[in-house]
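Shipment paperwork, digital attachment
Item: protein structure file
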Amino acid sequence: MKNIKFYILSFCMIVFVSLFFVNCDETNDSNQMQNQTSKISVRLMDAPGDYDEVNVEVLDVLIKNSTNSDDQGWISVGNIKPGVYNLLDLTGGVNLLIAENEIPSGYLGQIRLLLGTNNTVMIDNMSYTLTTPSAQQSGLKVKVNQTLEPGIAYDFLLDFDVEHSIVKTGGGSGKYLLHPVIRVSTLATSGAIKGTVTPIGFQVLVSVQVGDGGVITTYTDELGVFQLSGVPEGTYTVKITPDPISGYLEATIPDVVVTKGTITDIGNVVLASSK
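Attachment content:
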């Protein structure tokens, strides 16, 4: 009987010690995961709009490890580059780095872009205040739903859709509201298309239709250079639309293949004259 009790007590002790060390191993693994980091950069770019200037004041960039809609759990990315930026400078493949830092690896639910009050739009050389009803208080929340792997760099692109972000109210009073429409993508799960369009000297719109029914657009710069960023992996037809008064015809480039983390160069596209 004593032997039975001894064996039972010995068995219980072995189980206890085993569970203790397993728990320690899991805790150590968890601590190691918590100590791992991923590098992220947050860049601002612009989908085109028919304005002379659209200036927005960026105060901060915050992140959250969940998709909850409340105001809990937000932290600043740090290493922010605050300032007033003209979104219409960010065309032709140009983007603006507004934050870059190492953050804990793991699930990233949302990014929040916090704007100030110094926002304006210029139309026909006249500057108007852009009223931001809630951006200053709560920020512009964009869902990311991305798991950041340790040691991997992620480049998040916030595509500011200017054309659909500015609303004129009050009839002829000239009051403009900023209701930002922002699309987020990352080079870890998407690619880009770049190229040039000639001749130059007039406005050219470049676009692709993506699978979710949206359209990614940009303008060429003064040298005819463009880049469509944040394009999901797949095969696309690139549509090139010159200003109607330019005297040149629209062109399409079919079967453009985009792969993750790469930039597909379609080279120089020469527009045909409509005359």
